[in-house]
Amino acid sequence: MKLTWFKKGTIYQIYPRSFNDSNNDGVGDLRGVIEKLDYIQSLNVDIIWLSPIFSSPNDDNGYDISDYREIMPEFGTMEDFDELLKGIHDRGMRLILDLVANHCSDEHMWFEEAKKSKDSPYRDYFHWHKPADDGGPPNNWKSFFGGSAWEWDEASGEYYLHLFTKKQPDLNWENPKVREEIYDAMRFWLDKGVDGFRMDVIPLISKPKGYPDAPEVGFRKIIEEVYANGPTVHKYLNEMNEKVISKYDAFSLAEGVGINETKAGLYVNTDRKELDMLYHFDILECTIVNGKFEEVSPFDLVQMKRIFKKWREAVHNTGWIANAMGNHDFARMVSRFGNDKEYHSESAKMLITMLATQNGTLNIYQGDEIGMTNITLETIEEVKDVQSLNFYEENLINSKFSEEMALEMINKEGRDNARTPVQWNDEINGGFSIVDPWLKSNPNSEIINVKHQDNDPNSILNFYRSLLKTRKEHDVFVFGEFEEIEFNSPNLYIYKKTLENRSIIVALNFTESDQVFKASGVANEYKVLINNYADLNTKENELILRPYQGLVLDID
Ligand code: TEU
Ligand code: CA
């Protein structure tokens, strides 16, 4: 019987480059994480997900791996890693690593060898294709980061496939040797004692046979219908589970790109023995219509409730998901879904109250526990993210938007928003480093930082700590049966959760004005478990919710 310790857990994602710089070279590192382990433990989180720490030329900050068994020198040594892992386990937490197995770096030995000759034993580790009749790429596939997904290789007269940058060639999972290489790398880390993996773009590993053209639909649809969910994906995930994961007390968290709720069960239903859970993109992309830097839609609370509902129902009693509203690929949660100015603290606390009371594993991202916000980058030189830079470059050529507009869009949606250094104190660069960090530190570190919030009982940080603790003590938060109340309200998100004879009500105000909720019962007799305001405003059976107020009430 597989252990399910991860279901109640909270995952804390660390993006090491931006977490803490221990040797003042401007880049976060493993010793920087070691220095902060007591802090991380103080959050009451259970599992640390470390974004890639392996050797990499950093075209995509480690998501382009050149050696799966080596630590990136900028981040430290294997000894540092061993010490980190021990430090995490000593504190009763677990560690999952980021497995980037859909592609590697073009500087990985496999690709370097593959390029040398069509007869190389490594040639078939990748997807090579002769040109189309006109000499162009074999099909119309676009890379996630702009331009064609095929790159021309002059020497061999063939194209290779890269769904991300051209320095991230896709691995050919149809080749059993590739699969064994990846499984071996996984075993290497599991034998060291790591507790599992977050699996980068795992739904993309199997490509449609014959590389057919993608239909003329939005990019999101293309991902769902063409790039993800390929014909052999389940066979390989099942194999990976059988040969690797199931042999350890380990779990897998899939990045559910291109998986919609109708397909979710195929990946995470327990009886299928594939993956343990996934985080989907529907909340993360709920304001993105087709793709980043294209059309955006306004935030719509009812739509968000629908998304939570359909996912909850999709895996009900059969599988499991994780819930996230931010990570290293998206703008900051409080800036997107809350109000990072007048109601910074209130809205940050309300949002995490919502996420912590959804059914599923809670997944939070570094810095969100202090309400870190988006940053304004003044010039394109300050932008570091390859996705944003490629968009900017393409736009210079097709002039779809003015340069100012393009930079504005990058500031609104770009991934650098989530990658600015963690703000530890009010000193230079927020205490991350005494030298200029690789990506500009947010000037608001003078106000928003761990040190201030640590000393303030009403801070976002201390709210996270007590919310996560309460969540651990009450199974109903995670496992309760969900009952929507006032589902069609565009202002309030209210739900009741019941487990055995325990019931709670969660009441969340998504607006900047007071909102009235008519409770069935004497509102002021409810016991307050969580409240992001000092008091509870009630009138007979009415609950008056303040701007961005978030409550969890015990109604036993
Ligand atoms: O992300 C995959 C992915 O789908 C994102 O590129 C996402 O679409 C985009 O950032 C949102 O606009 C994973 C990693 O999380 C990301 O950091 C990597 O760049 C990417 O895979 C390639 O490994
Ligand atoms: Ca460093």
TrEMBL record:
Q: Which domain of life is it from?
A: Bacteria
- Pfam families given for it? Alpha-amylase (PF00128)
Q: Which Gene3D superfamilies match?
A: Glycosidases (3.20.20.80), Golgi alpha-mannosidase II (2.60.40.1180), Oligo-1,6-glucosidase, Domain 2 (3.90.400.10)
Q: Name all Glycosyl hydrolase family 13 catalytic domain ranges.
A: 13-419
Q: Which family does it belong to?
A: Belongs to the glycosyl hydrolase 13 family.
PANTHER family, from UniProt?
ALPHA-AMYLASE FAMILY MEMBER, NEUTRAL AND BASIC AMINO ACID TRANSPORT PROTEIN RBAT
Q: What name does the UniProt record give this protein?
A: Oligo-1,6-glucosidase
Q: What organism is this sequence from?
A: Aquimarina litoralis
